[in-house]
Amino acid sequence: MRELLPNVFTIADQGAYAYLLGEGDDVIAIDAGFTQTPDEQMFPGLERRQQRISQVLLTHGHADHYEGAQAIQARFDAPVAIHTLDAPLMRFAADGELRRKLSLAYPDLFAPPPPSPKAIDADQLLEDGDTIQAGNCRLRVVHTPGHSEGSVCFYEEHQRLLFTGDAVSGGFLHFYCDPEVVERSLERLRRLDVEHLFMAHEYPPLNQHVLTGSAIDEFFASSLNALRTSRTYRLDTLRDIYRHVLDTLRETGREMLPQELVPDLDHTTLIALLKLLERAARRGVGTPAFSG
C-alpha cells in the first residue's frame, strides 16, 4: 500500500493495481484485486492508518478487479458498485463472458456457463454520469465501453484524477472486446482535463501504471495510433479464425467450449472476433454468422 498523492494509495498484486481514495472511515476502493489482495495488501495498511473502506467501485467485471470485493464486503460491510452491463460478469468463471454471449447468440452450438463459486452480486448499479462522494473527492462515472461492455472510469474533476482500469491499454491491442467502440471511448477520455492517470496495469509503450502531465497525452495518442494502425490487419486475421471456427463446428456437430475451438486465443480476443465479423456481415464485407 503506497501513497501516491495525499489520501490516494495504490495496491499492487501480481501485476494488477487497485486504488484507495479518501481518509478515516470514508475510504473508497477503486477495484478490489484478486481474492487474496485485500487480506495481503490492503487490510494491513488500513489497520495501521485506522481507516475503513466505505464502498467498492469496480471499473469492470473481470476477475483481477472484482474477486477481492468479497473480502472487503465481509470485513467492512462495504457495498459493491459496478456498471449495469458488467454486473453479470461477476457471476461466472473467467471465461464466462464469452460463453454467456455465445450461448445467447447460438444456443444450439454453445452451452451456457456454470455459475462461479466466487460469484458476487452488486449492491449498486452504476450509469454514466453518476457521482460518488469520498471525503473531499467527488468521483464522476464515465462509461467507456470497449474492454468490456460495462467498463467505466472514475474522474475527479477538482484534482484532475482519472482512474481507468483497463479502458486505456496503450499498445496492448488484444485487450478489448469491441474495437470500434473502444476508439470512441478513448477519444472521450482524451478530452478530459487530467493531471494524474491511474491504470490497472503497466501498459506498453510506457510500461507504467501512473502517468502525469504530458505523458498522459502521449499515451492516449499512442493508444489511438496503435488501434487505428492494427484495425485492417486484425480484421483480416480474425476472418481467418472465424472460418476455422465455422469449419470446426460443422465437422464436430456438437457443443464446444471456446478453448476447444481456438485454444491459443483468450476470451477477450474471441469476443472481439464476434463483434468484428458481425459488423462486417452487416456491411456486406463478410459472411453472415452461421448462415449455413
Automatic annotation (TrEMBL):
Q: Record's Pfam families?
A: Lactamase_B
Return the protein name: MBL fold metallo-hydrolase
Look up the signal peptide feature and give its range: none
Domain spans labelled Metallo-beta-lactamase: 15-201
Q: Which organism is it from?
A: candidate division KSB3 bacterium
